[in-house]
């Protein structure tokens, strides 16, 4: 397996991994699939986006971008990770996340956030194993497939212990 920065040539493969998740699951609250232009924009704009390749085929990606807009949030990032079904359970997600965390940490990011669907307990368990802590469960903030969905917010502090100066987390 190779993990590398995403390139424009990866847009088709990223869309092929992401769009079925959008179309068929509540893992993503997005109501519509992303076009190739939208995926290319993601590649161009995200401060960090990486793909995992197995035998020359992209089988997943992970990215991060600012948690919320505005200068006050410039060091808090939210990440996304999507794996093709055949890539799950082989350590690929863990490897992608390690690359994302290292990249974000080197860029001075303080906290990395995950917004996990309440209908994705595997996603919560995955993040828990990586050292993310559940900070809040936001009830009924998403709406997809004609039903309300909860969102679990999970956070991982990336800087050295003691560098965190506020809050109880």
UniProtKB/TrEMBL annotation:
Keyword Transferase part of the UniProt annotation: yes
EC numbers, comma separated: 2.3.1.-
Keyword tags: Acyltransferase, Transferase
Keyword Acyltransferase among record annotations: yes
Coiled coil: none
Enzymatic class: transferase
Domain annotation N-acetyltransferase: ranges: 1-159
Protein origin, superkingdom: Bacteria
Family matches, as Pfam families: Acetyltransf_1 (PF00583)
GO molecular function annotation: acyltransferase activity, transferring groups other than amino-acyl groups
Protein name, as recorded: N-acyltransferase YncA
Organism: Boseongicola aestuarii
């Amino acid at each position: 397996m190779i993990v590398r920065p995403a390139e424009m040539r990866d847009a088709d493969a990223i869309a092929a991994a992401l769009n079925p998740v959008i179309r068929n699951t509540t893992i993503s609250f997005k109501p519509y699939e992303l076009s190739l232009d939208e995926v290319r924009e993601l590649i161009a704009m995200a401060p960090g986006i990486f793909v995992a390749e197995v035998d020359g085929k992209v089988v997943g990606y992970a990215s991060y971008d600012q948690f919320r807009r505005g200068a006050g949030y410039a060091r808090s990032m939210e990440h996304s990770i999507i794996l093709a079904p055949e890539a799950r359970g082989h350590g690929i997600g863990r490897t992608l996340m390690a690359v994302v965390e290292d990249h974000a940490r080197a860029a001075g990011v303080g906290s990395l956030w995950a917004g996990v669907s309440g209908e994705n307990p595997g996603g919560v368990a995955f993040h828990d194993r990586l050292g993310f802590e559940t900070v809040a469960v936001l009830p009924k903030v998403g709406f997809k497939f004609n039903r309300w969905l909860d969102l679990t917010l999970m956070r991982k502090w990336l800087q050295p212990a003691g560098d965190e100066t506020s809050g109880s987390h």
